[in-house]
Design goal:
This is DUF3291 domain-containing protein. It comes from Mycolicibacterium hippocampi. InterPro entries: Dimeric_a/b-barrel (IPR011008). By secondary structure, this protein is α+β, with helices and mostly antiparallel strands. It has a single domain, classed as Alpha-Beta Plaits. The protein is 36% helix and 28% strand. The chain contains four helices and five strands; from the N terminus they run ββαββααβα. Strands 1-3-4-2-5 form a five-stranded antiparallel β-sheet, with helices on both faces. Strand 3 and strand 4 form a beta hairpin. The longest helix has 18 residues. The protein is globular. The model has no long low-confidence stretch (mean pLDDT 92).
Length: 143
């Protein structure tokens, strides 16, 4: 399982743990194996984009290609910084291109309790909970 560890751009540290700081985790599961290589390459490009985005505190990426699943974990100065980054390129174009190729996706957001980077175990538990809530709201449908 390729994991790109938590990376913090220079100058991002002072915002950690400040009021309004936002952590975000996402999980994407592709429907088809043949989409995995292209999505992985796109995920690496998006990671680079996010690391250059104003307001980013840090990012990490986990790829499980044999499961067709990708996870992201990031922290942001505030919601506005995250929203601006996801509207940028290549993120926006990649999500539009792969939206119909997803078997499932889940997202969760929370305010970190301290200056530590978000924890993967906590993030995955939050993603599982978000997916369960969405499935219940959709009558059992997960996407």
């Amino acid at each position: 399982m390729p994991t790109l560890p938590w990376t913090t751009p220079a100058g991002a540290g002072p915002h950690r743990g400040a009021p309004g700081t936002l952590a975000m985790a996402s999980r994407f599961e592709l429907e088809r194996w043949r989409d995995v290589p292209g999505f992985f390459i796109s995920a690496l490009r998006i990671r680079d984009q996010m690391l250059q985005s104003p307001g980013v505190i840090g990012v990490s990426l986990v790829a499980r290609p044999l499961r067709r699943t990708f996870f992201t974990l990031s922290a942001w100065r505030d919601r506005a910084a995250l929203n601006a980054a996801v509207a940028g390129q290549p993120h926006a174009a990649t999500m539009a291109r792969y939206r119909t190729r997803m078997a499932d996706s889940a997202f969760t957001f929370w305010e970190p309790a301290d200056d530590s980077p978000p924890d993967w175990r906590d993030a995955v538990a939050r993603l599982d909970e978000a997916a369960e809530i969405r499935a219940a709201a959709d009558g059992g449908r997960t996407l």
